[in-house]
Amino acid sequence: MATVLLSFLMKSVTKLRFVNALGCIFFIVYGFLLLPISKPIIITNVAIFGINIYYLLKKAK
Questions:
Q1: What is the top-level taxon of the source organism (predicted)?
Q2: Nearest residue to 47 via CA among 29, 26, 30, 24
Q3: Which of 11, 29, 30, 52 has the fewest CB atoms within 10 Å of its CB?
């Protein structure tokens, strides 16, 4: 949760997306540790992670 909070303090959109993606990875791992009741945590954070990666790759081009 701290990494997601930290991402909102970033002025650079690229840094924000990178730190937020890292926070999503932590939440995905957390979701797997809570299985089977944590499917919404996993699904939501996988989607957000994918969006962050998409825009990071798009900006890198």
A1: Bacteria
A2: 24
A3: 11
Query: The whole model's pTM is what?
Result: 0.80
What are the structure tokens assigned to 4, written together?
Answer: 């997601």
Count structural domains, the chain.
Answer: 1
Q: Mind listing the pLDDT tens digit for each residue in 2-40?
A: 776 777 777 888 888 888 899 999 999 999 999 888 899
What is the spatial distance between Cα 43 and Cα 4, in angstroms, rounded to a whole number? Answer: 16
Cα(49)–Cα(43) distance, integer angstroms: 10
Question: In 3-state terms, what secondary structure has residue 53?
Answer: helix
> Which tokens hold the place of 3?
């990494």
